[in-house]
Amino acid sequence: MKVAVLGTGYVGLSTGVCLAEIGHEVVCIDVDERKIDLLKEGKSPIYEPRLEELLIKNSTEGRLAFTTFHQQGLREADIIIIAVGTPQSDDGRADLSYLEQAAKDLAEHIVRDCVVVVKSTVPVGTNEYVKQLLLGQLKSNVEIKMVSNPEFLRQGSAIEDTLKADRIIIGSDDVSASEKIQEMYRPLNVPFLLTDVRSAEIIKYASNAFLATKISFINAIANLCEAAGADVEDVAKGMGFDKRVGSAFLNAGIGYGGSCFPKDVKALLHTSRELGVPFSLLEETISINEHQQELLVDKALKRFGTLNGKKIAMLGLSFKPNTDDMREAPSIKIARSLTASGAEVAAFDPVAASNARKVIGDIITYVDSAVEAAKDADALFVVTEWEEFKQHDVAALLDVMKQPIIFDGRNCLDEAALKACKTIEYYPVGRPAVILKGND
Ligand code: UDX
Description:
Number of domains: 3
Domain UDP-glucose/GDP-mannose dehydrogenase C-terminal: 313-415
Number of helices: 19
Bound molecules: uridine-5'-diphosphate-xylopyranose
Strand order of the largest sheet: 11-10-9-12-13-14-15
Shape: elongated
Family: Belongs to the UDP-glucose/GDP-mannose dehydrogenase family.
Organism: Mesobacillus jeotgali
Number of strands: 15
Structural class: alpha/beta
Pathway: Nucleotide-sugar biosynthesis; UDP-alpha-D-glucuronate biosynthesis; UDP-alpha-D-glucuronate from UDP-alpha-D-glucose: step 1/1
CATH superfamily of the largest domain: NAD(P)-binding Rossmann-like Domain
Keywords: NAD, Oxidoreductase
């Protein structure tokens, strides 16, 4: 099949590459010339495991192309997938301006009957809105059918999540359009859920809001465990054995970030207000998360009395491991709070430092290794659970620190290794602290 993908962000690029990988002829279109030039050279503008490898393979084998020209990209497409961003507006609503521009560009250049798929995360009713926009501006006399097809890929495993998805949601009020999209995805051998457009739109927000709520729930339980002297890891394990609860997304920590959960919870809350349906559970999800992002700084303040003049090492900046994405990363709030309290911060992240600098700026120092960050530090904050931090020799970090104090915001350091250290103060989230004072 001939597929055009509009937008080469995380979703568009992963989708385009994977559709080429399963045999379709794909053209990815973006207005950003710099990005398209990079992609033409076989370079991925984002850090994502396997993305570049599949990008090069499918481009070389002639199934994947990139262009800034809509006309060229859309000329032969049977299916057009819109995967442009829908960022958060100031009032929490999803900003649809990229989508509106995409509809305008499509209307201008579509020259044959086709199915238009909205993959961008959009509030309920948007597919209908896009269809009206398209129909109102079409330049050629063609038939357009709409399909809502939200995605559920995670950053850091976008390719894996696309090729081995749990389900593919196809929302359409037109049987032939729905069948065409099923045919496109059939080689993936993933279960389909066929539904109407509005339900498909809501499934995406409901899934993300549910997962975010699960995280806030376990974080609230973690705080309770801390106060009660219990261990949230065991509590989560005990809960997770129950299939109705499930063990995934019960890792307590310093809250969720990223390009989806924060904005999608807020957008769903906005929709519920617009529709006059109270949904205060979502307000609580957001407020627990905001509080959780302050947790490490609060704990350090409690431990030291003041952070003025203290040297803090931050391990990890990205919102989660295996990505250089800094969107809504808890590290942003932590870095700002620490420096506002007079602390000096040295941060290390395996890949996110340059993106972090764009957001956090030079109020903190960016260094090249965990040991360099830890040098002379009064405390170490583990902010992102990168594998290399989990594997790191904790003793080597403590050796160079001024004080052997660790606040682990992701409960990811190896407890046996910590307990083997003679002198340490280790504060995880929702678990008992490990405090050893020279016990030889
Ligand atoms: C998420 C959804 O998982 C995905 O389906 C959707 O398409 C986009 O949003 P992503 O943002 O890439 O994906 O990351 P995810 O792995 O889900 O983590 C989101 C945030 O939640 C991260 O900040 C992570 O640290 C946090 N998290 C996740 C927890 O704090 N605890 C957990 O148990 C799981």
